[in-house]
Amino acid sequence: MKKVLALVLAMMLVLSVSAAFAEKAGEGITIGVVYKQSGNAYFQAGVEGFQKAADELGFEFMHDGPDDGSSDGQIRIIENYIAQGVDVLCISANDPAALVDVCNEARDAGIKVISWDAKVDPEGRDLDVEPASAKVIGVTQLDSIVNSIGGEGQIAIVSAMATAPNQNLWISFIKEALESGDPKYANIELVDVVYGDDEYTKSFNETQALLDKYPDLKGIITPTTVGGPAVSKCIQDAGRDVKVTGLTLATDMKEFIDAGIADETFLWNPIELGYASSYAAVAMVKGDFTGAVGEKLEVPELGELEVTESDDGGTILFLNKLNSFTKDTVDAWVGIL
Ligand code: RAM
Q1: 225: Cβ below 6 Å to ligand 1?
Q2: The domain spanning residue 208 has which CATH number?
Q3: Do residue 162 and residue 228 come from a single domain?
């Protein structure tokens, strides 16, 4: 009996030692993560997703974004990553065209380029990873504000940077829906689109200017997590009866949802976006996945994601998950997003 026990223990030891030395899929791979700007909680959540995948897959990663949300700052970060010999870049672009040359410099050096959250133009990327279709994200926010203001009145948009590819695409689908002739939008007038540059103070001040300029304004869509609390606080301080919707972190918006300034806001899970992008990045470096239309990528917890053709002619991978935050649901997300 003792001998059997000793044998079992010895086998268990061998198994655990070999497990410890078993190579993880991402070992030896370095990912350079670039986001729109530093200090944005949305991207901090995205980085959590990269970290979670790094723990599972064993890759190394660096992450950075410019303080000022500029493309020049992003170009400098990318050049630094190229010099450091990363294997793959995951970039949320401040301007889709401005990064094409530096991304192609990276690709010439054998580095794969994935954009995540906000696209690099197709000429400069191997794949784009996005939370959901831009049309769904845009029209969901429009329908929400239309409901909140009772189907009629003036609305405005407080966006991020004027060059932001993701916000600009969502806004183009909002405008397309408004011009579609659909009777549910017949009494809705989009009076202005302004840019808070994903800075709290600028978003607040731009909202104040809108409130001053449009005394009959009924609703604001803010498709940026930085805009959500800034726009809502401005409306609250001004005591105006203007409703807000947009793409927000639940933690930032709880007080404004509870106060009735926003009935409903939305967001996917940025942790999952970083996590899925990591799995795509590792598979691409290993040559298991090229990002071509029809290819499938298995991501733990998220299942099998399929590459499709993007509106811009490049290729895209969607998570297809949009959460809604209301008085009833927001508490479950506070502290997570
Ligand atoms: C901000 C950024 C980001 C966008 C979210 C919704 O954090 O602009 O790119 O996806 O909002």
Answers
A1: yes
A2: 3.40.50.2300
A3: yes
